[in-house]
Design brief:
The complex is a heterodimer of chains A (about 110) and B (about 110). By secondary structure, chain A is mostly beta strands. Chain A is built from no helices and eleven strands. Helix content of chain A is about 0%, strand content about 55%. Chain A is globular. Classes of the chains: A mainly beta (about 110), B mainly beta (about 110).
Chain lengths: ~110, ~110
């Protein structure tokens, strides 16, 4: 059973388009995250949700809008895609906001042409 | 400003050798220091983690050493194996939503 799943795995699109990435976890966790990993492998947190409430928003452009319809799902919608948005986006989850292991999904490789 | 600095960027070790990766942090509020392992095409996975109340933690071949006064911590992989070849990330967080700040990563290659 996949613990944290993301769809799609690959996303190729044109500049200016709007796209969404979906994430689901079946671990019963309260907290979910979105990370961006750039071409140099640098990992940076973008958002964190706890019980469907946004708790971390790390100065991400407002073209990025996360949505958590329930505790098991955290989707990422990106408007007006730019070349610099090309990266691998990882969803992760943890039991709660304390010092807990974060379980990462397999990633979505976004390429903006 | 990179709050967690990791070195080296890449490391080649012979099978059976010791791999050592170092990290330094600036924020004295950090009090949780995990290491994550990432294989190509996969998401990172927790390897081992330490809180600053201890100076060392060992799990199998993996050991974290922690120096609070120097604000440094390191990962030692004993008896390195080709299957350990991966990218390793140190990270740090404080009690603020479990938000992890990652180091830049170290690409480890273990030669047979």
């Amino acid at each position: 059973d996949t613990a944290v799943s993301q769809t799609p795995k690959y996303l190729v699109t044109q500049m200016g388009n709007d796209k969404s990435i979906k994430c689901e976890q079946n671990l019963g966790h309260d907290t979910m995250y979105w990370y961006k990993q750039d071409s140099k492998k640098f990992l940076k947190i973008m958002f964190s949700y706890n019980n469907k409430e946004l708790i971390i928003n790390e100065t991400v452009p407002n073209r990025f809008s996360p949505k958590s319809p329930d505790k098991a799902h955290l989707n990422l919608h990106i408007n007006s895609l730019e070349l610099g948005d090309s990266a691998v986006y990882f969803c992760a989850s943890s039991l709660n906001t304390a010092y807990n292991e974060q379980f990462f999904g397999p990633g979505t490789r976004l390429t903006v042409l | 400003q990179q709050q967690v600095k990791q070195s080296p960027q890449s490391l080649i070790v012979q099978k059976g050798g010791i791999s050592i990766i170092n990290c330094a942090y600036e924020n004295t509020a950090f009090d949780y220091f995990p290491w994550y392992q990432q294989f190509p095409g996969k998401g990172p996975a927790l390897l081992i983690a330490i809180r600053p109340d201890v100076s060392e933690k060992k799990e199998g071949r993996f050991t974290i050493s922690f120096n609070k006064s120097a604000k440094q911590f390191s990962l030692h992989i004993m008896d390195s194996q080709p299957g350990d070849s991966a990218t390793y990330f140190c990270a740090a967080s404080n009690n603020a939503g479990n938000m992890l700040t990652f180091g830049g990563g170290t690409r480890l290659m273990v030669k047979p």
